[in-house]
Amino acid sequence: MSTKTKRNFINIGSFILGFGFLGSLDGIIFHQLLQWHSVIMDTSRPEQIISDGVFHLAVTITLVVGGVFLWLAGNPTDLSKGIRLLVGGFLMGGGIFNLVEGIINHHILKIHRVKPDDPNALAFDLAFLGMGALLLVIGLLVRKSGQKQEIKISA
Which Pfam families match (predicted)? Predict the structure, then answer.
């Protein structure tokens, strides 16, 4: 496998895995453990359970797809700064999950909020978006720092 193909598999796989992982954490923590919200709040409990089940199935499939890409990529340490690509992509995928899910579901579609019955519901929604932005920025910095070092080494 070429270095470019391996790098692409790591980039795609780590991003998808991070996206699915944050989706799973959202479902486990906010839906199940804290029971703050469900995917679709304005339904009966059986419909909420179905909507959450479809969500959990989707993020599980996402985790498997990300894992397959990473398996195909092989050992990330075979590449210069491969671990940085892996970690950076994972954090970026997780950050994008929070941003996309937060913007679309919490603000545009308004199908649920992070903690809808709280008087500070907007603060919870903004914190969710802020965490997504923070993960995205950290992921970008991890990847960028690896690229700078790689350029210095090869120059």
Answer: DUF2243
